[in-house]
Amino acid sequence: MKTVRKSLQMDDPVEAVIVLVDLIVGHGRHVVGVVVVVVVLAVAEVVIVVHVVAVVILVIIVVVVVVVEVVVAVVVVVVVVVVDVVVVVVAAVVVVVVAAVVVVVVIVVVVVVAVVIVVVEVVAVVRRFLKELVILHCVSNRGRKLAIVIVVVVVVVVVVVVVVVVVVVAIIVVATVVIKEEM
């Protein structure tokens, strides 16, 4: 400091510059050392910050991956359970519907066979009755027509009654089968 003061108090500017240059060159190595230390510390600080940021980014990536894996696992489990339930319900419904359809088909076949048998028997009876009417010449034309109408009405009533009874029985049987299947 004394040198600096001394150089500033000199009357000759050239001599003052020489003293200042000597001061800088003489103590310059200390300045360079301080600059190097400051630069190294700054670089070390940047490296530490970069490492911390990298670690934080890695932690975020790990957390995101774990969360995504958990969400995917939950979604897969839910989808599998829902699909299993849907398959079981659909299979149960299909079994019940197929059983009901089979029962209805069997009942319809039985009804058709019964109706055919009744119709064949009624036609046979009507033919015999008409033959007897033809044999009886004493019955007038109007009487024959009335007898035919009566026979046709009786046949229709018998067929309707048989069909209604068979349909009621079929409904009862189907309802019983469906109720038993659902239990």
TrEMBL record:
Transmembrane regions: 31-64, 71-95, 101-126, 146-179
Keywords: Membrane, Transmembrane, Transmembrane helix
Domain of life: Eukaryota
Annotated protein name in UniProt: ABC transmembrane type-1 domain-containing protein
Organism phylogeny: Eukaryota, Metazoa, Spiralia, Lophotrochozoa, Mollusca
